[in-house]
């Protein structure tokens, strides 16, 4: 069976970033630098690398800096041109040409499910990817392209799963699964948002990459607010998992074992900065030498 190709991605970016206050009081959390680029740029680049250069940002009040980052800055370009700084001029223009960026305001932060529902008009009746801006996937271990391949084979919706320590599972959406013929692909039979550890159906956590069938929109419209009084995408996926394939149902999980950083968590954010700095071709050697000396003190 041939399944419709995915061409669009959605990046929810309306959160308040309260875990990073006061840094995020006036600066969107998605614009916090991870080494030499804002966090959200890495996510957009991941989408583009997977062939999805039609990107919809689900934005909110005070998030204008995100849209500006992916727009032209004529005044800055003129200054760099006058200085003859071609290298930085190319960097500034590259971000503006990186993807076809669209945006829509969420208005009220009513949950991830509500944010995804805001994409319905732009996405229409096509399958689409969702990439959470808090989750940075190491470019050395890409996952989105693999998820698109799983969608092409299985149809329905595809979610990204990571095995986490059992005592940490209550921090995530969690799944019940059945095996398939592929070792890293599982059939999802149930989902629970942040279950108590003793009630978790597995140690597989849902992380911030999804490939969703457009049937999710109708389900989200009928999904009542769940945990935290928000419309949870997990609840909609639970419904999709029990729906027949011909109605756009079915949920498959791709088990990911690569490197992932949660830039909404201070420790993980710092790990991302250090990892990328250590790999930089210009600064990496000096930075790693300094880091070894610093940690030896």
Question: Which terms summarize this structure?
Answer:
globular; five-stranded mixed beta barrel; alpha/beta; 297 residues; two-stranded antiparallel sheet
Report on the architecture of this protein.
With 297 residues, the chain is α/β, with parallel strands linked by helices. The protein is built from eleven helices and 13 strands. The chain has helices at 39-49, 64-69, 74-83, 86-96, 112-117, 120-123, 144-154, 215-221, 233-241, 266-279, 284-296; strands spanning 8-12, 33-34, 37-38, 54-59, 100-105, 128-131, 135-137, 157-163, 173-179, 185-193, 204-212, 251-255, 260-262. The strands form three sheets. A five-stranded mixed beta barrel has the order 8-11-9-10-12. Strand 9 (173-179) and strand 10 (185-193) form a beta hairpin. The longest helix has 14 residues, at 266-279. The mean pLDDT is 90.
Low-confidence stretches: none
Give the spatial strand order of the biggest sheet. 8-11-9-10-12
Number of helices: 11
CA-CA gap between termini:
61 Å
State the shape.
Answer: globular
Helices and strands in order:
Elements: E1 8-12, E2 33-34, E3 37-38, H1 39-49, E4 54-59, H2 64-69, H3 74-83, H4 86-96, E5 100-105, H5 112-117, H6 120-123, E6 128-131, E7 135-137, H7 144-154, E8 157-163, E9 173-179, E10 185-193, E11 204-212, H8 215-221, H9 233-241, E12 251-255, E13 260-262, H10 266-279, H11 284-296
Parallel strand pairs: 1-4, 1-6, 4-5, 8-12
Antiparallel strand pairs: 2-3, 6-11, 7-13, 8-11, 9-10, 9-11, 10-12
